[in-house]
Design brief:
Length: 292
């Protein structure tokens, strides 16, 4: 028996970090994602995991094996071949780890295994906001608030048409570490108080979600959102220079994940200018890109 499953990545339009503190976030599924094919074979000695496409090396294979181990709690005799094909950049803000978990769970346990998949997400990615899981599982644009059921949101058709995703490189810190650092910055601890600049940046990001709900232009909102991410300290200098060049060309851009304090910032969404101009800016910095 063979069963296949596809889970998209996600693109956060607004709400990074703000969602952790209860504010609204908006995310849409991407056209690229994770495909998993499970070929069950009761005569096999074990479950063989094979990886095709974008591959992050041993850590990602080990992560897939952890997911398979959790699936075995529901299906003890899990044997055969599990083939993973990833079109997603791994670990760069598009929900690749959650997409892999959901695609594997659906392929092995079936499309109705949402509860099991969410328990696995809680176990493997403790402290997650829930936004990635919701938009990837539902495969539809969602308005998300922590502790509340996500709501489908109607966005203007073609709002990302002509957009480009630019790969600025792998962040130096994992998302969990960045979220913990941000919580420390934004939560009063003893006599230490969060800076007014950080609180205002968080509030600006929260307002960006409300502006998109009200129908404001995405490019205009993205410029303000990016400035707030810079103020939070999660956009490294090289990525700031990239986005400044995009804005000079008449476009807008923002980091679509947790970003980073150093190194790369993961994927940047760029739009609002001619796609060829955006691609030329990425090429001049030797940064890979893909059209939406």
């Amino acid at each position: 028996m063979s069963r296949s499953s596809f889970a998209p990545g996600k693109i956060i339009l607004s709400g990074e970090y703000a969602v952790v503190f209860g504010h609204a976030g908006i995310a849409v599924p991407s056209s690229i994602g994770m495909e998993v094919i499970f070929e069950e074979d009761s005569n096999a000695d074990q479950l063989e995991i094979l990886w095709d496409g974008t591959y992050g090396g041993e850590p990602w294979l080990a992560y897939a094996e952890k997911i398979a181990g959790l699936c075995r709690k529901k299906r003890t005799k899990l044997r055969g071949r599990l083939m993973i094909h990833s079109g997603l950049p791994l670990g760069k803000g598009m929900g690749s780890s959650t997409a892999l978990l959901i695609a594997m769970t659906r392929a092995v346990l079936g499309d109705d295994a949402r509860e099991e998949a969410l328990l696995m997400e809680d176990h493997l990615n403790p402290g997650h906001s829930g936004l990635d899981f919701a938009v990837i599982w539902e495969d539809t644009p969602l308005l998300f608030r922590k502790g509340m059921n996500p709501e489908p949101i109607n966005l203007p058709p073609g709002m990302l048409r002509g957009g480009v995703l630019i790969d600025t490189g792998l962040p130096s810190e994992p998302t969990s570490e960045l979220v913990a650092w941000m919580k420390e910055k934004l939560t009063a601890a003893g006599t230490r108080r969060p800076s007014s600049e950080s609180l205002e940046a968080l509030n600006i990001i929260a307002r960006c979600s409300e502006r998109l709900i009200a129908g404001d232009d995405l490019s205009t909102v993205m410029r303000d959102h990016h400035k707030a991410q810079v103020a939070l300290g999660v956009v490294p200098e090289e990525t700031q220079e990239l986005i400044a060049a995009i804005e000079r060309a008449g476009g807008a851009a923002k980091v679509i994940g947790a970003g980073s304090r150093t190194g790369g910032a993961g994927m940047v969404l760029a739009l609002g200018a001619d796609a060829e101009k955006l691609e030329a800016i990425a090429e001049s910095r030797r940064m890979p890109f893909m059209q939406l």
